[in-house]
Amino acid sequence: xxxxxxxxxxxxxxxxxxxxxxxxxxxxxxxxxxxxxxxxxxxxxxxxxxxxxxxxxxxxxxxxxxxxxxxxxxxxxxxxxxxxxxxxxxxxxxxxxxxxxxxxxxxxxxxxxxxxxxxxxxxxxxxxxxxxxxxxxxxxxxxxxxxxxxxxxxxxxxxxxxxxxxxxxxxxxxxxxxxxxxxxxxxxxxxxxxxxxxxxxxxxxxxxxxxxxxxxxxxxxxxxxxxxxxxx
Length: 232
Hints:
alpha/beta, Rossmann fold, seven-stranded mixed beta sheet, two-stranded antiparallel ribbon, 7 helices, globular, Type 1 glutamine amidotransferase domain-containing protein, glutamine amidotransferase, Prot/Nucl_acid_deglycase, DJ-1/PfpI
């Protein structure tokens, strides 16, 4: 079986262009659904974040009106998985050689810290260079922006990927006063961003890169990663 590293943001607020601070945290389904799928497949799962900080739960992901009727199960699974795991690994101390896949869940946190985290960038460059699996879902693909090589080139430029769309950001009510919009930024950096219908499952696999558009894409992304690990 394989070892999978789930890298979480450490941010609990997202500063807006109007100076306001938007509370953020991990999105329950984006942690719970992949963790559940990986454990079911027999993989070992570790959690890491910058400095080992455990960010809070994004309360929107616990609201059935926002996150769907199954959100309570996702919240319970995520909280138990993180509680059972104990202190998160410090991202700066993690080695890519220890893992077969690195997975990046969302919440708005990656827009705050992971997109420019040098330790994550080092981890992702090495993971991609060795052909191991990189997965990201919803706002998680923001973290891919950290993967800049020794020549200053973004290693995921030209790759097909999904991510939370500008349209979904507007529908969610967080596009106004956002410092930048994820899908637009990915395209600006050279990604071949593709999208499905708002809030419907949509995943893309481009070689060793597996990405999902939104929370509903979390489980399909994880199953695609499981299939890729089984084939490797």
